[in-house]
Amino acid sequence: MPSSVGAPALRAMDSTVLVPMVRNPLSSERALADAQEFPAETLRLVGQRRDALRRKGDLWADFFADEVRRRIENGSFLGVLWFGPGGEPVALAHWEPAGEVGRRGQVYLGEGFQRRSVLEAFLNRLESGPTAHPPFVSWSDEIPGVSEADREAVFAGRGFFGVVRADMRLPAGIELPHLAPLPGYDPRALSVADETRMAELLFRVYQESPERALFATTLDQHEEARRGVWNVLHGEVGEWLPRASFGIERDGRLIALTLANDFEGGLIAEVGVDPSHRRQGLARRLLSLTTDALRSAGFGVPRLVVSMWNPGAVRLYRSLGFEFVPGGASRIWLNLRALGVSRPPPP
Predict the structure, then answer these.
(1) Is the pTM of the predicted complex or chain greater than 0.70?
(2) How far is residue 146's CA from residue 137's CA, in Å, rounded to a whole number?
């Protein structure tokens, strides 16, 4: 049975007004309960998902479970639970605070309810009534117990586009080559004073790229670039490492950069080259400096995350010796139209 006594007064969450819980798990009319009010049931579903992901070797299983626990403890968790007739938790959805474009969510199905029909019914319920706004613009594909084919049928049928992101690492002992100096393209270390120029560069990098849909919170691309840089530099992605972050300037503006952070180890958080200055080896030069600096700082195995819809980046990293990390790939389902992307990524 739920750990809370009686029907709680449910909070308004992220502009979503919830109604009291009812006991009819198979009805599309059943209501949703604020997950923050039922921590034991919420953590039970989270624990089941964590254990399932551990069994398949997922690198981030414990990280995300710990993050949910932390948010429940500090009262910042945003999510809803669906209960069965005996009080058992059937499904959980939670999300990040809504940006201007909508919410980014994850779904958990309880053991015994891990079926396509339950997933579809739960999403239908979330997408109707007061829980429909702000809309969901992305969903994680990690739903243990539901087959890949069924997940694809459900999300693609709703107009979402699936993209795989994968962790890559540079194994110990592999050194990136140091290329000969390129006159007029001298790398230098970056500092917080470069924040505005970093954002201007990343705006140009992603202006015509569907990759901007991965993390967009606003349709204003200039503002999105500013927010993205701020997150990297000011603690949203671990600790920024300026000593391992480098840039190249040309004619008074930044045209290439690498940004590195201490986030579960040495992470190359961003690699960007101005479209008008590509195919000159600038990314290779900066990656060589960044990986050397990370290793000098004690991060023996630098890593990064690449989108599989960016085949040029995949080829670059593999040519430098990066390899895919077993268990480090995951798929995200994106509503490209809602995220302001008019063209799909290449196959």
Answers:
(1) yes
(2) 21
Reduce the DSSP state of residue 227 to 3 states and report it: helix
Same fold, 33-158 and 168-327: yes
Taking a C-beta distance cutoff of 8 angstroms, is the pair 247, 190 a contact?
yes
* AA identity, residue 216: A
Amino acid code (one letter) for 171: P
From start to end of 207-314, where are the E strands? 239-240, 246-250, 253-262, 266-273, 303-307
Instruction: Tell me which fold the domain 168-327 belongs to.
Output: Aminopeptidase (3.40.630)
CA-wise closest residue to 194 among 244, 233, 239: 233
Reading the chain (347 residues) residue by residue, the pLDDT tens digits are 333 323 232 233 333 333 333 333 444 445 689 999 999 999 999 999 999 999 988 878 898 899 999 999 999 999 999 988 777 889 999 998 878 899 999 999 999 999 999 999 999 989 887 777 889 999 999 999 999 999 999 999 999 999 999 999 999 999 998 888 889 899 999 999 999 999 999 999 998 888 888 888 898 999 999 999 999 999 989 999 999 999 999 998 999 999 999 998 999 999 999 999 999 999 999 999 999 999 999 998 999 999 998 999 999 999 999 999 998 899 999 999 888 887 666 65
Percent helix, strand, coil in the chain, to 5, is 35, 25, 40
Q: Dihedrals φ, ψ of 273, to 5°?
A: -130, 130
Farthest CA pair distance, the chain: 72
Write the CB contacts of 214 (distance below 8 Å, at least 6 apart in sequence): 163, 165, 307, 332, 334
CATH of domain 33-158: 3.40.630
